[in-house]
Structure formats: structure tokens, C-alpha cells
Write a sequence for this structure.
């Protein structure tokens, strides 16, 4: 797979550690290549992994551009490796609130963040692992966090947008190569106004003219910060740049669908977050606002978001028809029939024993969604997890 005449992006060694080719030198002939094979030519593990990432990116680009599978199979190794290909994930431990804290620190620090790329990759890997392990627990934790303003809004919003995008993209059958830059973009799209985003969520008045300008210009500012931090993925940067103007013709054609999905997820999550100036919208209203007036592909995307999140997402509150107040803990067979745990009885008294109830059963039908501010009973996450054991979707 080494192309004759092209410079190699790595040092090449033999089995005993002797340097055979220095980075930037080419394989000069077929005979030269066979000699390298005879000497068991190799690279360091670090270079090998980075080169592999570069190769995978090249293959993705060829597939995206309609390349023939046979041509792709014969393609040589690329002669360039990006700096970002060498980034090794910094392991992040804990659950969603731990990820939220680490991400908030990076977003707040912006261009001054130290070693942000390795930490962001670590956050991505951990977030995707938690999501794959239990999507309902993920949604529960993040929607509960969205209602807790003391945690800060910007990082919760970013994580929830990334999760909604990932679940929706999987529902739509998107390939990994298309999902990855979208997930990455969702986490950092607002790095250009993270602190101000939290301030806006807490202030008692409408945005000032200065704040409106910041909101309008922050995508470009975010891109500039990300470039300064070493982000060089063109698709990720393009999605960030146009997430408030997803149909902009200036963007990369291959990111159009991703930009539209992120814009819809961004608006959906924002509507479900309370402000000092307004109450949070329910998921039902947020979905209605999202698809109202939508045309073409946007209708399908909005429908997919509703299906993967549900009209009563895990972590949000509901009033049951027989008077009990409950919290949704798991998505059900349909978007409007989640599993619910009652928190108070029909007289408003706290319920001690957590018992999951299937709202598809008319006995436990949902009457209406409830704003979190109307629920005065704290939810015990560990009791929720124990109560859910044995449930199936």
C-alpha cells in the first residue's frame, strides 16, 4: 500500500530498530519497496495509529464522493497525517454529571484550554459508551440535569444535543463516518459563547442588543477558537459554522444533512430548557414547534427525533390520569407511552416505593406533561435504576 514516488509521513524502521527511511522520504521503486518488505519495515505504534486514522478519513472521503469500491480497495496509504490524528483520548471517569463538569471547564476556558483535544476525545468516547450501554438512563440523567440550573446550562445543552443527534442519526441509518463529526460538533458548537450562554439562561430580561449580536456571530467565533485549539476536521468545523444557518450554500455539500439535524436538535433542546423569562416547553410542544412549517427532509428528521426521544422523554415529569405525579424513566413502545415511576399519589403525598408503570395501560395513562418547577419531590437516581431492572423496550 506504499505508493512509489510519494513521500512517507512517518519514519520507517527495521525489526532491530534501525532507521530505514526518514519521514518525508519516498519509496523510490518497486525494488526498493520489496527491500523494505524483506527488512520487515515498520513504524512506531503511535505513527501507525495516526496513519490508520488518516487512511480511514481518506476512504470516507472517497466513499462520500462516489468512488468505486474497487478503486478504494486499491488506494495506497495517504502521504499526509494531520496533527489531530495523533491525539490520544484522555480517559474520563464517572457518569454524565462528571462528563458535564469536564466539558463545562473546556467550554468556559475556550481558546485558553489546556490539552483540550485529548480531553474532548475522551469525553466523546465515554459519552458514546454510556449512551450505547443505556440510552434511557442517558436521557434521564441529561433531562434531569437540564432542569437543574445550578449545574450550568451550556455543557448540559451540548451533551443533550450530541445525544439527540447520535440517536436520530442511527435511526436514520447514517454511517459512522457521518455521525462522528456531527457528534463532535454538537459538543463544541457554542464554545464561542459558553459563559454567556449560561448567563443568558439565568438573566431575568430579554437578550440585549450586544447579546443578540453575540448569538448571531458565535458560530464563526467558535470555529476560530476550535482552529486555534488544533481542530482540523473540515466537516466538524463546517457543521459548527453553519449550525444556525444549516441551509447556507457556502457550506460543504456533504454536511448539509448534519447541519440540519444539529440545528433542529439545538432548537428542540433549547425549547425544553427553562429561562427566567419563560417556562420550559414540554417535549410535545417542542416537537410541534420543530416540525411546524417544516418541508421536505426536515419533516422526516423531526419525526425521527420525536421517535428516539419520545413525547415524554426519560427524566421529564407527567401527571397521570388518576392524579399521581410521575417521572418518565424509560421510553415505551410508542412515543407517547413511556414507563413512568410515580413520585406523589393522587393526594400529593410522596411515594416511598418506586414502581414502574406502563402508560400504554389505560389505568396509568398520561394526562399531561408537567414543568419541573411544579414537582417538589426529589428523584433518587439509584432507586430509579433499581426499579427499572427487568424492564424491556
Amino acid at each position: 500500500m506504499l505508493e512509489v514516488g510519494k513521500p512517507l509521513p512517518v519514519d520507517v524502521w527495521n525489526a532491530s530498530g534501525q532507521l530505514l527511511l526518514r519521514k518525508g522520504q519516498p519509496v523510490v521503486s518497486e525494488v526498493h519497496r520489496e527491500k523494505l518488505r524483506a527488512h520487515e519495515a515498520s513504524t512506531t505504534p503511535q505513527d501507525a495509529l495516526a496513519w490508520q486514522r488518516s487512511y480511514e478519513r481518506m476512504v470516507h472521503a472517497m466513499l462520500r464522493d462516489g468512488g468505486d469500491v474497487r478503486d478504494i480497495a486499491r488506494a495506497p496509504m495517504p502521504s499526509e497525517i494531520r496533527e489531530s490524528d495523533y491525539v490520544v483520548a484522555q480517559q474520563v471517569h464517572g457518569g454524565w454529571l462528571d462528563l458535564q463538569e469536564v466539558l463545562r471547564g473546556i467550554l468556559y476556558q475556550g481558546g485558553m484550554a489546556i490539552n483540550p483535544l485529548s480531553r474532548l476525545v475522551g469525553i466523546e468516547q465515554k459519552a458514546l459508551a454510556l449512551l450505547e450501554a443505556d440510552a434511557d438512563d442517558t436521557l434521564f440523567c441529561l433531562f434531569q440535569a437540564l432542569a437543574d440550573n445550578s449545574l450550568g446550562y451550556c455543557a448540559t445543552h451540548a451533551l443533550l444535543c450530541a445525544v439527540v443527534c447520535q440517536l436520530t442519526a442511527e435511526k436514520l441509518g447514517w454511517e459512522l463516518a457521518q455521525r462522528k463529526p456531527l457528534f463532535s460538533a454538537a459538543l463544541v458548537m457554542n464554545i464561542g459563547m459558553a459563559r454567556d450562554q449560561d448567563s443568558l439562561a439565568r438573566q431575568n430580561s430579554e437578550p440585549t442588543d450586544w447579546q443578540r449580536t453575540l448569538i448571531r456571530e458565535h458560530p464563526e467565533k467558535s470555529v476560530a477558537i476550535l482552529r486555534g485549539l488544533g481542530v482540523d476536521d473540515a466537516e466538524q468545523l463546517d457543521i459548527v459554522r453553519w449550525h444556525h444557518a444549516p441551509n447556507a450554500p457556502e457550506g460543504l455539500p456533504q454536511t448539509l444533512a448534519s447541519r440540519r439535524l444539529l440545528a433542529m436538535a439545538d432548537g428542540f433542546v433549547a425549547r425544553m430548557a427553562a429561562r427566567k423569562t419563560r417556562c420550559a416547553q414540554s417535549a410535545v410542544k417542542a416537537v410541534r414547534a420543530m416540525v411546524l412549517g417544516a418541508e421536505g427532509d426536515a419533516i422526516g428528521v423531526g419525526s425521527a427525533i420525536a421517535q428516539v426521544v419520545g413525547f415524554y422523554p426519560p427524566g421529564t415529569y407527567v401527571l397521570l390520569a388518576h392524579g399521581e405525579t410521575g417521572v418518565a424513566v424509560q421510553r415505551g413502545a410508542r412515543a407517547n407511552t413511556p414507563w413512568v415511576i410515580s413520585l406523589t399519589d393522587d393526594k400529593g403525598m410522596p411515594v416511598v416505593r418506586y414502581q414502574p408503570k406502563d402508560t400504554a395501560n389505560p389505568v396509568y395513562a398520561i394526562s399531561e406533561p408537567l414543568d419541573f418547577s411544579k414537582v417538589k419531590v426529589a428523584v433518587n437516581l439509584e432507586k430509579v435504576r433499581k426499579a427499572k431492572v427487568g424492564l424491556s423496550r
Remarks:
- DSSP finds 15 helices and seven strands in the chain.
- The mean pLDDT is 92.
- The longest helix spans residues 209-229.
